[in-house]
Protein: LemA family protein
Organism: Chitinophaga lutea
Amino acid sequence: MKTGIIVIIVLALLTIFGCNKYNGLVKKEESVQKAWGNVETQYQRRADLVDNLVNTVKGSANFEQETLTKVIEARSKASSVQINPGELTPEKIAQFQQAQGELSGALSRLLVTVEKYPELRTTEQFQTLMAQLEGTENRIAVSRNDFNASVNDFNSSVRTFPNNVIGGMFGFAAKGYFKAAEGSDKAPKVDFGK
C-alpha cells in the first residue's frame, strides 16, 4: 500500500514539474510570437509610408518613372512574403528578410535619385515622410533586436535539460534569428566626387 502511495506522489510531482516546464515554454514561445508581430508591424508601417512617399515623389515633374516602378514592385513583393509565427524557421526568416532587403535597396535608389530634385527635397510633405521613414527604420532595427532576444531566450530554454525533453515531447523547436544581410560586413563606399 505504501509503495502505491509513493508511486502516486512521485507521478504527481513529475506531472506538476512537467506542466510547469511546459507552461514556461509556452510563455516563451508566445513572447517570440509577440516579438515577431512587432517586427511585422514595423515593416507594415514602412510599406504604408512607401505609398505616401511614392505619391509625393510622383507629384514632382520629370521624375524617373522606372525608379518609382521598382520601389512599387519591391514594396508589393515585400508585402506578399508573410510568415506564420508558428513557422519561424531560419529559411523562412531569410526569405522574409530578402524581400525586405529588396525594398530597402529600391528605397535607397529612390533617395539617391531624389537628390537630383532640390525642389522636391524642400517640400514639407517630403521632409515629413523622410523623417517618418527614418524613424520607422530605427523602429524596425529595435523590433528585430527584441525579436532576436526573445528567440535567444526561447531557444536557450528549449535546448537545455530538462526542457529539451518536455519540449521534444510537445513539438517545441528552436526558432530562427534575423541575420545581417549578405555583404553588410563590408563598409559602404562613399564617393562625393560624382
